[in-house]
Amino acid sequence: MTLESRITFLGNRVLGDGVNGWTPGDRVCVTPAFRQDAYGVIGEVINIPATALEPIPEDVSYTHAAAFWMAYGTAYGLLVQTGGLKAGDEKAVVFNAASSSVGLALLQIAKLYEAKTIALTRKGDKASRLFDAGADHVILTDEEDVSSRIIEITEGRGFDIACDAVGGPGTTMLENAAGFEATMIQYGLLSGEVAPVPTNAILGKAARLTGFHLLWHMLNLPDRRSIASAELRASWKDGYFTPTVDRVFTFEETPAAYRYMDSNQQFGKIVIEF
Fold first, then answer.
1. 254, 260, 259, 268: which is closest to 42 by C-alpha?
2. Confidence (pTM)
C-alpha cells in the first residue's frame, strides 16, 4: 500500500485504486496515521489513507475499537518501544494525566508487564477510580509534594520510567524523583509552558530524556508498527486490554462532546457514535 492509496467507506465499503490487503466488509479501526488537517473522520462518509487502518479483533465492538489505537498505540510506544519496559522487570513507572485515555492504557500495559504503577492526577475526585482501575499508587499533584511521594513510594530509589504528557514546571518535579539511569519521556505539552531541561538528573543520575509521538515514531516506521500491532492486537483479543470509554455521544451531539472534553471531567475516552 502506498501513501496515495485510499479506502472509501460508502455503502458496502469501496476500496480505492491501488489498495491491497483489504477486502470490502473488513472490520477496521482508524489510526491517526495521516495529517489531521487533511482528512476528517467525524462524518457518515469518510475518505482516509489505507495506511491508517488496523484490523479489529473478533467480538470487539466498534465503540471500543474507536477508543483503542490512539491510547494503546501511544502507551505501548512510550513504555515498551521507548522506555524499554520488559515483562517481569518490576520497574517503577510514573505517568501524569492518568485519567486520560492514554494514562489508563499506560496503566493496563504497565500492569501486564508487572511494573509498579504511580499515577499522577490533579485532584482527589478521580483517585478512587484510578485505584479501581489498578493503580498501585496515586499522587494528587495539586495537594502533595510529587517528588517526595515518588521517592517514598520507591523506598528512596526513584522511578525507572516517567511518561510526561504535561511538561512545563511539572518536569522539575519528575526530575527530582528520577532513579539512576531512569528514562523520562515527553509525549505531550498540556501545560502550554516550556519545560526546563532536567540537567541535574541527566548529569547526576545518568537519566535519559527523550520524546515520543505516535505518528512520527511508530506509525510511520513499518518495523516498529508491525511489532506493536501484532502485540497489541494479541493482548486486545485475549482480553488483557479494555479501553475505558467515559461517554458516548451521538453525531448530533458532537459540539457537546467537545465541550465535555474541554471541561476535563472525562475519565477515559470520549466517543462519537453514528
1. 254
2. 0.91
